[in-house]
Amino acid sequence: MSVRELVVLGTASQVPTRHRNHNGYLLRWDGEGILFDPGEGTQRQMLRAGVAAHDIDRICVTHFHGDHSLGLAGVIQRINLDQVPHPVTAHYPASGQRFFERLRYATAYRETVRLAEAPVTAGGILAETPSYTLEARRLDHPVESFGYRLTEPDGRRMLPERLAAHGIKGPDVGRIQREGALGGVTLEDVSEVRRGQRFAFVMDTRLCDGAYELAEGCDMLVIESTFLEEDRGLATDHGHLTAGQAARVARDAGVRHLVLTHFSQRYSEPEEFERQARAAGFEGELSVAQDLVRVPVPKREV
Q1: Under a CB-based contact definition with an 8 Å cutoff, are residues 26 and 55 in contact?
Q2: Catalytic pick from 67, 204, 219, 291?
Q3: Would you give the DSSP letter of residue 229?
Q4: Which residue of 152, 270, 281, 284 is surrounded by the most CB atoms within 10 Å?
Q5: Strand partners, 221
Q6: Element housing 21 (H / E)
Q7: In this structure, what are the phi and psi dihedrals at residue 264, rounded to the nearest 5 degrees?
Q8: Which are the contacts of 281, defined by CB distance < 8 A and separation ≥ 6?
Q9: Closest to 136 (Cα-Cα) out of 128, 147, 144
Q10: Which residues of the chain have pLDDT under 50?
Q11: 138-156 burial: b if 16+ Cβ within 10 Å, else e
């Protein structure tokens, strides 16, 4: 059975707190695992969350600030220590190549796994698989930063009433799905488009076109909300979003499930992030992320 869920490993910005680890997020997408922004302590958080190195197929780093990347050294070495049997691909801003290399080879260890480096230069499509297309868009932060988006290919939803009207049943249903036509009846005659699911990951950024493009029509948007509205000036100065700004991106983009994360240590009341997001007009499903929580990707709309 396919599983699509977000495993939250850490939610703190800049420095960890007693209750929040540095960033880290594993997206389970059917049989693959995509690890986003492994900050310091990610390897231990993986153990606590029941995530193994074998679960990782891709690593996507938005930018090379420490709270988003210092865990790379430990994660990469663990992948090799556990001799993960499949290749792993790492995506990261090409401008940070020197930082990636320093983290990859921070200490001596024995390489046993093929780690493919696929640096991001200008956004666009990074990879295409049967389950998804992975894209990147440039964000607006003091250092080069990219957000990521997964889009599942559209499929077809069979319509029982149309199948019955054309007398198609039993094994013939599978046949018309495979072949596209049967006895003069086309697949389009007995089905409709089933929109593929969409997921976006937007970390450190000011409001920008890239954030909206990544969020457009997403079933789940994971987005930073470092500051509350009263500190909007700080957010702009340091290249971040407020909870209200993140919620307005989600609202305007038609997001179904908004996941707020990357919280400044200055705040002790997480419910205020939800209150301000609602005040900004977002009416969909909303989660204020907590460490070691699993958040299911919403089921497809009927």
Answers
A1: yes
A2: 67
A3: G
A4: 152
A5: 200, 258
A6: none
A7: -65, 145
A8: 247, 248, 251
A9: 147
A10: 1
A11: bbebeebbbbbbbbbeeee
Q: How far is CA 293 from CA 5, 7, 45, 284, 288, in A?
A: 10, 6, 11, 19, 10
Check residue 1 and give its pLDDT.
Answer: 47
pLDDT of residue 301: 74
Q: Are 103 and 68 in contact (CB under 8 A)?
A: no
| 3-state secondary structure labels for all residues of 186-220 | EHHHCEEEECCCEEEEECCCCCCHHHHHHHCCCCE
Amino acid at 28: R
Instruction: Specify the length of the chain in residues.
Output: 302
d(CA 268, CA 160): 52
**Is 67 a known active-site residue?**
yes
The token pair that represents 220 in the structure block: 């789940």
Cβ-contact 296, 5 below 8 angstroms: yes
Query: pLDDT of 105-159, one tens digit each?
Result: 999 999 999 999 999 999 899 999 999 999 999 999 999 999 999 999 998 889 8
The pLDDT value recorded for residue 44 is: 97
Helix-helix angle 72-81:97-104, to 10 degrees:
50
First-to-final CA distance of the chain: 19
Q: Is the pTM of this model over 0.90?
A: yes
Q: Which residues contact 158 (CB under 8 A, 6 or more apart)?
A: 173, 177, 190, 191
**Tokens, residue 61:** 């780093």
Report the DSSP beta bridge partners of residue 261. 224
Q: Is 148 helix (H, G, I), strand (E, B) or coil?
A: strand
Placement of tokens 């958080």 in the chain: 45
